[in-house]
From TrEMBL:
Residues 169-278 form the Peptidase M20 dimerisation domain. Transmembrane segments: none annotated. This is Acetylornithine deacetylase. Gene3D superfamilies: 3.30.70.360, Zn peptidases.
Amino acid sequence: MTDVVDLVSQLIRIPSVNPRGRAEPAETPLAEFVADWARRHGMTADLHEVLDGRYNVVVTVPGDSADTILLETHLDTVETEGMTVPPFEPTIRDGLLYGRGSCDAKGPLAVFLTAMAELAAGGPRPHTVTLAGVVDEEHIYRGVLALRDQGINPVGAVIGEPTSLRMVTAHKGCMRCRITARGPGGHSSEPWGKTNPITTAARIVDYLADEYAPALDAKARPLVGPPSLAVTMIDGGSGPNVLPESTTLTIDRRTVAGEDPHQVWGELRDELLRRWPEGVDVAEPHIVDYALETDPEDPFVRSVASVLAGAGHNPEAKGVGHGTDASKIALDGVPCVVFGPGAIAQAHTPAEFVPLDELHAARKVVGELLRSPVLDTKGAQAR
Ligand SMILES: [Zn+2]
């Protein structure tokens, strides 16, 4: 059996730093390694170009049923500047494996690959298992969006991210937009009769903080709490003696399940334009992420919980603050859980690490899950 620690170490040695806006095939050597490793371990593997010579890797082990379990995680990591451990030279100290991506998300990737290799080697294979290692999760999610376009329709998905072995089923979404107040401008010594956009913006800020945001409490969800709104940037004025012609606010609106971000934006815009019919406009929203809330009664989710409980881990569903690829996959109605070794508190840090015992534990949980004939696509009896 391939040692999961050994494989994470090999993955860390292959840099895959997200190039952000630059056109660089950053994850390609890692995608090629994963495809080659998978083929050498009896699996089929394909590369799918997403952009700029950057590829998602898709690995499959066919099972007795065409019903597919999707294991999804990302190939890219964040930058390495300021790291206090060697980013690409895996180091083990006191039961912890250090290196960029060790917990986010090469640990989960190695867990998935080694569990699938064991499946490919023999024994019961109740389901087809597909692993997707995608690009660009740390930037604007183009890898998972391309994966959705491929039309994979699994009965359930495990998204590999550091969750300290907890089963995460909910997180918030995020919508941002800019609100601009306008006025005629002019000399500040003659302000009479002129709309000052800074004054308008101040009133909008008061309205958002005192009326709009508190009303969001009524929409609280059990695992993630209420939606929120914060004014995060304000920009206006050009000189101490000039009436500004415009002032722009940026808002960050965190959404919960049941809220469509475009609808949230439309309602906010309508309300602001009703209150300030002139001199205010609300720009198109930027949808940063969608909210995730997986039904805890879904058979796949109960299967994961059951395997966790059987292995002596906490099977309770958990909500987290940060977004993942799960929210995009869930848009197609796929029940998604986020699971993996290592803590989100270590992700993106100067001394990123993953505990070895959690790697082994996660490997056991995923292996057990892939062996369990528990799913029914009709949503009927789970074990
Ligand atoms: Zn991640």
